[in-house]
Every structure is written in structure tokens, then in C-alpha cells.
Amino acid sequence: MQHIIPANLEPIDLEASEGFDCGEAFGHGNFQRGFFFFAVLSMWVQHCNTLAFPLISGDVDHWCRQPGHLNITADQWKELAIPVHGDGQRSRCNAYAQPSDPNDTTVVPCDEWDYDAELAPTSIVSYWDIVCGRAWRITFVNGLSMIGSLVFLSVSGFLADRVGRRLVAFGAASLLMVTSFGHGFASTYLVYVATKFFVSGCCSVLFVASSVLLMEVSAHKYRVVHCGLAFAIGLTLGDLCFAIIKQFRHLGWIARQLLIMAPTALIPVGFCLLTESPRFLIAKRQLKNAEALMKAAAQTNGFPLHGPMTVMDRTEEKLRHMSLSPRQWKALRDVSSAEVLRRRALIVFGSGFSILLAHYALLLAWSARKTALMQGVSVTTNVICCATLLPFFNRSSRNKVLIAGIVVTGTLCSLFGIASTGGGTNLMVVRSVVLVVAEAACFIVLVFNMTYTLEIFPTPVRGVVTCLSFAFGRLGGVLAAPISAVRGAGREDLLFALIAVVLCGAAWLLRSMPGHTEIASNPEIKNNGGGGHRGTGASSASRQDRLEEMKKTLEIPKRWRKEHRRKSSTYHSLSAVETSPHGTEPARSRKGSEI
Fold first, then answer.
1. Sign of CA dihedral 449, 450, 451, 455
2. Alpha-carbon span 407 to 214, nearest angstrom
3. What per-residue string of b and e applies to 272-292 under the rule 16 or more CB within 10 Å gives b?
4. DSSP states of 242-307 as a string?
5. How far apart are CA 403 and CA 511, in angstroms?
6. Secondary element (H or E) of residue 148
7. Which regions of the chain are under pLDDT 70?
8. Which pTM was predicted?
């Protein structure tokens, strides 16, 4: 963990990058909307990439191919050569060794197959003969896709905190555009698998990098809503694309894949709206670049330029003189000490793994039962739940709401497992309802957990921790496929009982989250220039201090213009103004004292 969270992370580093509100620095407007659009787009592309393989790898009825010299119909061949199992279904993988001899019941495995002519063009299963003894190749693609995300995220997280979020996003976007073209027109299984590895990794990196950027440029009172909505809208758009394309039953698998991955073509357009995070630049002590970026953002938002100048003056003063009181230093140490951050990282790794394990297990259960009606009801339920609960999540204790959501999701998984053990029409309806509600609960918890992870870590380590948290989640996705195999043995109840236990473990871990779970919630930090928002429990005194600081900020432009008309002004003349009997305050100067 010492390689993830540096031991030399000082409180002043945290205060410099987290000790201001973007709303007071450059306002709120079109600048943030560009980041929001790109975050939605990247989440949409990421989810479409996840759903693309299930869309093109559907099951197709198949049977052993008849020899070319036999002049009989397919139905006659089945009657003559294909054995029947005890359940009345004909074998898909075996045929009689001597079909012409009715007394010879010896069966042999097939090496070639015929497929349902109607569905064969829609699936890679028939295109590359991924059936019977080759069926493991389906699981292999799923696993390799998750591993690609895990590998790329593990590397890019460290790069994001060292070279910048935008540079990492640019690299991921560039590689994604190249590999997506080869992936869409892959002519062999090997090419498809290789490109899938890179596409999945790039999509994951792009999604996490854009999410970190959105969190770091949003005003405190909007950051949770911005990130939560970006995740929810992106996921919903992906589900809608999947549901719509699924209705075209006779569409070929290449056309299906190109359609669901079509949002990738918007990535270059969206990337033009991105800049580097000003918080990252401050954390790296690139103060001139940070100020130039803030001024450009303020102009985009139509915000007064004295906002970024005031924030940067205050930041430079703190960094120059290390101007933190002992109480402020201790308060920041409680939030940003390496030990606290490492414990917090381990907890979010566990919660990310558990939630995405449940998410992918529910997706696999869903794919075995879904209908067009269920798909529509599910998307509608997800949207309603997110629109209802996200404002509540923004106003309330994030930790407690997330724990409650995980417990509810685990309970619903248990109920679904119990309902899956019985039969009958009425119980089928109950199973469908519970599955839809469980999927909606997991959807909401997934959105909340990603937002929570972004919020509780400071800028110097936000990139690596967020990337690794999502990587652990993808590891849960890798595990979901093999453990879901128990469904074939009729023990789906055991599968979801295990998932419920794992989710309860995640809730227990989150209860032990150390320190403050929100940087802006610490009154000592807020009094030192940090920003807050509703739900942080700030005292009335802290709010009054904040109000006074805002009043001072509003007075700056007049004094600033007056001072710049004095061409011969020096530091000593400013001191004389401070002590004048008329009580005139000093004008803002880049070399003067802190306002």
C-alpha cells in the first residue's frame, strides 16, 4: 500500500489542492458542462462495451452436421442421427456413429455443426463454432475483457496522479479509436479477443479519468449530483441501446456490434471540451498554469476574473509560508495521513469488488430471463430510483446512505435466490419483480459507490485509488462468471446467498471507514479556505466566516482597478495605506499580503 498512498503526503499538499471551492474560483457554467458531457459519454461507451459481447454471443440452436454425400433433409438427419436425451431434447454435441444401423447406439462427438438458419447470422457462436467443447471461449472473452480493464486501470491510476488526468484520458481515447476499428471488423476469433482486451481497458481508463476530472472541476454543492447523474445517464443510455438493438432479431452480429459501439465515434468531439484539472496542477505546484486555466474557466463561465486571482493568491501565500495553525495542521493530518488513506482505500477496494460482483451476477441472471417488457420496466425503474434518491444522497451522510443501500441490495439478492428455487406461474412473476427491484437497487448502489469513492480521497491520490477501486470491481466481474455456473446445477439460491453475504461484508467494512469521509466536512479545513456544501454538518460559525470571506472577495475589483492606476506603487506604500486614519484597505497585489 505504500506504493499507492505515499507516506510523505503532507497536510499542506491537501490544503493547497482541496482548500478552495471551484464555485468561488471560476463559477459554475459551460466549463463544467463540457466535463459533464464527456463523463456521460465515457460512461455510455464503457457500458456499451460491457453489453456488446452479450449482444453478439447469444445462444443459437445447433446439431451435428450431416455428411455432404447424404441427400436428406435436416429434419430427416435429426431423426436418423441425433440422439435424444431423457428430457426430450436432441443432443447438440453428439451423433450416432452409424446412423444407418438402428441397432448401433454408439455416439461420437461432433467436429462440425449446423445452426438455426434464422439466428445464425446474429451471433459469433455460429460464426466461429463456439459450441460444445469450445464453449469455454465465451467465458474466456468475458474474463479477458475484465482482465484488460484491471491491467489498464492499475497502470493508468499511477500515471493520472503523476502526469495528469487529461494526458491519460488522451492516451486512452487515442488507443480506443484505433483498436475499436479493428475490433468492429474482426475476422478471426484471435483478432477479436486481442482487440477486446485493449478496447475494454481503454474504455475503463477513459471513464475513470473523466469522472475524476468532473469531480475536481465541479463546485462543492454540485459535485455529487454531477458525478451521480453522469454515471446514471451513461448507464441508462447503454441499457437503452442494448434493448433497442436487441429488438432487431435478424441483424447480423457485426452490424449489432458497430451500432452499440457507435457512441465511441463521439469521443474525439467530447475530448475537445476537456482541460487539465486545476486541482491537479496546484497539487503539482504548477501554480501559473493553474491560474491561467482558472482564468480561462472563469471567462467561459462569465465569472469575474478576480475569483481565480484571489484563490491563487491565497494558495500561494499558504504554500510560501506554510501558513497553517497547529489546529488546522492536526485537522488536515486526521484527514490526509497515509495510514488513514490506506485504510480508506482498502475499504473502497472491498466495496467496489462486492458491488460489481453482485452487479454482474444479476446481469447474468437477467440475461437468462429478460424480455422486452422486463427490459423496459427495468430501465424505467432505474431512472425513477436514481432521480428520487440522488438528491437525498447529496443532502445526507454519504456513508450511511451507501451502507443502507448495500444492505437492501443484499436482502433483495437473498429474496431472489429463495424465489428461484420454486416453480409455478405465480412464483415466476414474483421472481421477475424481485429481479427488477434488485437490479435497480444494485444500479443505485453502484452509482453511489463510484461517487463516494471519488469524493473521499484528496487530489494527490484520487486518480490511483479510483482506478484501483474500479479495477477491483472488474475483478468481481471476472469472478461472477464462474460462480454463476451453479445456476446450471439448479442452485441459484446458493449463488445469491453467497452474494448477499459478500454485500453484508462490504457494509460492515464501510461502517469502519476511518476519519472524515469528506474533505470539505472538516470545520478546520473550511475555516482555512475550503469549501463546503449541504450535508457536511458545518457549524454556523464556519458559515459566518465563509460569508465574511465572500464579502471581502466582492470588494476586490474596485480596489484592484484603483491600485493598478498607481504606477509607482510599492510594498511600502501599501503598508502606509493599511495604517492610514481613513481605514482604507490595501489593494490586491500579486506581491502584496494575503487578503
1. positive
2. 29
3. eebbbbbbbbbbbebeeebbe
4. HHHHHT-TT--HHHHHHHHTGGGGGHHHHHTT----HHHHHHTT-HHHHHHHHHHHHHHHT--THH
5. 7
6. helix 136-160
7. 1-16, 321-337, 366-372, 422-426, 487-490, 515-595
8. 0.80
